[in-house]
Structures are given as C-alpha cells and as structure tokens.
Amino acid sequence: MTIKEIAKISGVSIATVSRVINNDESFRVSEKTREKIMKNIKKYGYIKRNIGTNINRFKVGIIKLFETEIEYKNTYYSMFYLTLENRLKEEKIKYEIFFKKKLNNPKTLEELKFLDAIIIVGETSDKFLLSLLKYNTNILCLDNDIKIDSVDSISFDYKLSVKKVIDYLIKQGHSNIALITGKYDKKDFRAKYFEEITKKRKNLKRTILKVGEFKKESGYLLTKELLKNKKNIPTAIFCGNDNIASGVYNAIYESGRKIPDDISVIGFNDNKISKFLNPPLTTISINIDNIIDIGIKLLKEKIYNKRTFTCKVLVQTDLIIRKSIKKL
C-alpha cells in the first residue's frame, strides 16, 4: 500500500503517516495514533515509491477565504490565485479548491486529511488555522505573516511597507494625511500600523482614518464623506489598495479638485489599472511572483524531501513612484 492509502485507512493525514514512519521527534502525535498507523503498515504493507518518478500522485488543497464575487472585485487576489494555479500546473502538482464558508461541513473537513498540503492566501485568524491543523499538519500561508510556529508562511513586512508610504509622504512635505482602507475578518494591518507610526511622527499635524471595504465604491463614498469637512481636507490620501484609490480619484475629480495639485493619492498592491489612471498612481508593489515561487519551493521541500522544520519568509515590497503625489 502507498502512504496515501495507509493514511486513509488510519483516518489521519499523509503528513502524519510520513512523520511517524520517519520517526520525526519534533512531531507530537498520541501513542494511540502512532500504534494504529504502525499496525496498519504491518497489516497491509507499505511500499515506498521513488518520489522523482511519481510526483503526479501529490495533491494539495487551496482554501479560498473569499467568495468569487469578492475575489473578482479585488483584482489583487484574483491575480494571486491565477498565478498560483498556473505555477502548480507547471510543477505538475494537482490541486483542489475549497471555500472557507463550506468548511463547516464535517465531510469536507475530513477530505483535508488526505491532501499532501493546504495552501491559504491572505490574512486569516489564528483560530481558523489552528482548527485546520487538526485535519492536516502541512499548511502553507501565502501573503500572511502568520505567527503559529508549525505553519510555513511567505509574506511581506506589513509594518515596513506602511512606514515606506508615510515616510515618503512626509518627505514630500505632507503633514495632513488620511488613510482609507477596508477590513475582512480583523483590523487591516495598514490601519494598525498607520495609527502606530503616525503617532511617532511629530511633524504630522493631522491624520484621519476611514475604514470601509476593499473596493472602488467604498473608496468613492468615504472620500465624498471626507471632503464634506472643508476645514479638515487632507493634502494626501493613502489607500488600502488600488481599487479603493480608483474610487478616491473619482470622488476628488467630482468635487472639482485635481490630483495631485489639490490632493495627492497613493495606493497599495500595484494592480494592472494603477499605471493607467490619470495621473498614473504611485503605489506599493507586492511581488506576487516571488511570494508564489518561494511558496512552491517550500511546498516541494515539505512534500518531496520531508522537511521537518518551519520556514517564515518576508519578501521585499517596492514603492513605485508615478505622478499622483505632489511635493509641497
């Protein structure tokens, strides 16, 4: 029998069987589970196959945190998933897509046990990840700087990326800055670090935080609201993503103001539309290709080479300077 078949009979994940077979001392498993696995191996036999010639037998699960409609509106994540799926196909790694909302079904959760790994893209709670670890111990988080020791993660330095934006705006002479962002399950990291960093910048006169959704309509409505207070109009608006920035542009122009002459705008994510806005949008670029390439490498190390230690990787972000920021 193969390791996958032993895992299925034993009611555990493939990773669990692998670690028991390889006497992984860093892996905690109950003696009862260990005995059950070894009993099944003895009873049915276990054939170790040559990984180099049987890579097509591996399969991973991609857990999508958002519904298709939300993903469609947030081009960053739609591009992320498309790139990820294409890379898995190139590596001949089979995959199956699961939606977070459907994981309350016990039968669906049981299916996770028989995957070689689980990939999650985007920010999610520790509570959700800990619940998944009960079904599969091989989890890879992309675009999420997760702190759980046993979970591999590849992301970017959240705090440093926000600091880059604030320091650049201050350098350009802006002292009245607003952040318009969104949130999913928890407070957006941009909001968290915006508040933390701006408190320490004594040369800032005023900061404003508006939280809605990560979409164009939200950026438009929150900017309209922001511009109603004529005594407190910011000289620069930092947007949680480039979709929000697109809505901010519309609201500013609708008010009779110009970008960047009257209000400067800076985005986040550098999606495909940002360089075609008028004027082209200054933004933070996250290298999706690098995150996914490193993720695939870590995935293969875990699946093919049985790596037992955890990896945490932070990828550099870049400030893409275009024409939406005015120097005061």
From TrEMBL:
It comes from the Bacteria. InterPro entries: HTH_LacI, LacI/GalR-like_sensor, Lambda_DNA-bd_dom_sf, Peripla_BP_I. Keywords: DNA-binding, Transcription, Transcription regulation. Residues 1-57 form the HTH lacI-type domain. The keyword Transcription regulation applies. Signal peptide: none annotated. Pfam families: LacI (PF00356), Peripla_BP_3 (PF13377). GO terms for molecular function: DNA-binding transcription factor activity; transcription cis-regulatory region binding. This is Sugar-binding transcriptional regulator, LacI family. It comes from Oceanivirga miroungae.
